[in-house]
Design goal:
Length: 508
């Protein structure tokens, strides 16, 4: 670790002459890439993991939501840990912890341990990601160099999902789904060793108290909410369509978890209003424009994560794609966002956020609804590809303006919190959306069987059309969630082009 004199010199700008700062950027970028990869790499492997470990249709979403929920729910705390305990120290702990959690997941003999490992991955990602962003901020003090560093960071964040989809397909097809997790172990450990030698230490001073009650109330409330959705799916799912012993959304366990979630989340808001050191300063989210951008990211995350989940199953189960072919099938979506993002970045200072966000959200809604037209033998080029491209172009017009709007009128000392809330909104939205739409999907498939199954011997023949019906219903609700994002943008976002900051850091 660096001594205090090194830290002082570093923060005063002397590091601008340090030739190792670009090597440090490369190390930090690898860590960021690993975090982004893990949000998408497991999607392609999920059908194989579900079959191997006997995971039920209702529970399979925990492979995704355990990671995103822990990541989003603990991200604000992770940022404070990095600031208070030392950004380099937190970065190293995050890398090592991520490696250990990935190894546990890759070796998991059952579903429960896999879910726990994914949650642990998300928790360590929640301290690793803000530490990485903070290290870039303190390592590059010259405005031009900092802009270049953030450009690299943003490119990694944008392209990482595409790389994860391809890598997930390669590892699942030619090795095992377990390597989609195990591959993180050597990468994280090598990155940690490199970071120890090239990254400088720095930390914040002054009041360094943590809002532990806020962490517990928010995290437990969100977990209870997701678990309530999962219990609703367990009550009615296609693994046992004739089971009438429970009542779906009306089941006592479902109601209990949802009520507990509401109580805990309301208590979280009340606590944040009165504590002197809030995890989430309510002034950050109470502003009209910032609150609107957070809602947009919440609803977009809810629809987008679920789209990846159901298309993965459609490709592999219904169309018979290999994991690798499934990964390449998603590539146009990531490519569309990356290409369009460059155009949007140029337009934003000229026209402002609303003229870009609103048409972008309309395109995303239309693209999602186009997916309700797929069938068991639909041609990818005719049905899936147009929907993907429409959504990718539209969402590129949402992510960049919404990220900028999230920092409108924000004070310098709250900028990091606002960026973290933005990312948390997307991750938490992804968790809730995946759980909710998986429940809707399971109920729709069960309902299809109930309406059409006359002879148990016909169950196998009815399964493909039942799954297609479930996808249609899930994509319809995905479109509704994106439409909610559109409504939030119309109602709350009124920032003009002159209001948008031009030198802000990207969201974590």
């Amino acid at each position: 670790m660096s001594d205090p004199s090194t830290t002082v010199a570093h923060q005063s700008g002397m590091d601008s002459a340090d030739p190792r700062r670009w090597v440090a950027l490369a190390v930090i970028a690898v860590a960021q890439l690993m975090i982004i990869l893990d949000a998408s790499i497991v999607n392609i492997a999920l059908p194989s993991a579900q079959e191997d470990l006997g995971i039920s249709t209702a529970d399979r979403q925990w492979v995704v939501t355990a990671y995103t929920l822990a990541f989003g729910g603990l991200l604000l705390l992770g940022g404070r840990i990095a600031d208070y305990n030392g950004r380099k120290r937190t970065f190293l702990v995050g890398l090592i912890g991520f490696a250990v959690a990935s190894g546990i997941g890759g070796l998991a003999p059952n579903a429960g341990l896999l879910f726990a490992a994914r949650g642990l991955q998300g928790a360590f990602a929640a301290v690793l990601a803000p530490a990485a962003l903070s290290l870039i901020t303190v390592t590059f003090v010259a405005p031009k160099e900092r802009a270049a560093a953030f450009g690299v960071f943003g490119a990694i964040s944008g392209g990482g999902a595409a790389i994860g989809l391809i890598l997930g397909g390669v590892l699942t097809e030619y090795a095992s789904w377990r390597w989609c997790l195990g591959v993180n172990v050597p990468i994280a450990l090598v990155t940690a060793v490199a970071a120890f030698f090239v990254v400088h230490e720095s930390k914040a001073h002054g009041d360094t108290r943590y809002d532990i009650p806020g962490v517990l109330l928010s995290t437990l409330g969100l977990v209870s909410l997701v678990y309530g959705f999962t219990e609703a799916a367990k009550a009615k799912h296609p693994d046992n369509p004739t089971d009438t012993s429970v009542q779906g959304w009306g089941a006592p366990t479902t109601i209990a978890f949802l009520v507990v979630a509401v109580v805990l989340l309301v208590a979280f808001v009340l606590w944040e209003r009165r504590t002197p050191n809030p995890l989430l300063p309510l002034r950050v989210v109470s502003d009209r424009n910032r609150g609107g951008s957070f809602l947009v990211f919440l609803f977009v995350g809810a629809g987008l994560f679920a789209m990846f989940l159901f298309l993965t199953y459609y490709f592999q189960i219904n169309l018979g794609y290999s994991p690798l072919k499934s990964g390449f099938a998603f590539l146009p979506f990531s490519g569309g966002i990356i290409v369009t993002a460059g155009v949007v970045s140029q337009l934003l200072p000229r026209v402002g956020p609303r003229p870009i966000m609103l048409p972008g959200l309309v395109m995303a809604v239309v693209g999602m609804l186009l997916l309700t037209q797929i069938d068991a033998d639909s041609a990818y080029v005719a049905y899936v590809l147009p929907a993907m491209l429409l959504m990718s172009v539209g969402l590129a017009g949402v992510f960049i303006p919404a990220s900028s709007v999230a920092l409108v009128g924000i004070e310098n000392h709250d900028a990091g919190v606002a960026s973290a809330v933005l990312n948390s909104s997307q991750q938490i939205g992804g968790s809730l959306g995946t759980a909710l739409l998986n429940t809707v999907f399971a109920s729709a498939v069960t309902g299809f069987f109930a309406d059409n199954l006359r002879n148990p011997a016909d169950a196998a023949a009815l399964t493909p059309p039942a799954l297609i019906h479930g996808y249609h219903v899930a994509f319809l609700w995905g479109g509704i969630l994106l439409a909610c994002a559109l409504v939030a943008a119309v109602v709350f976002v009124n920032a003009k082009k002159e209001d948008v900051p031009t030198d802000s850091a990207p969201a974590v």
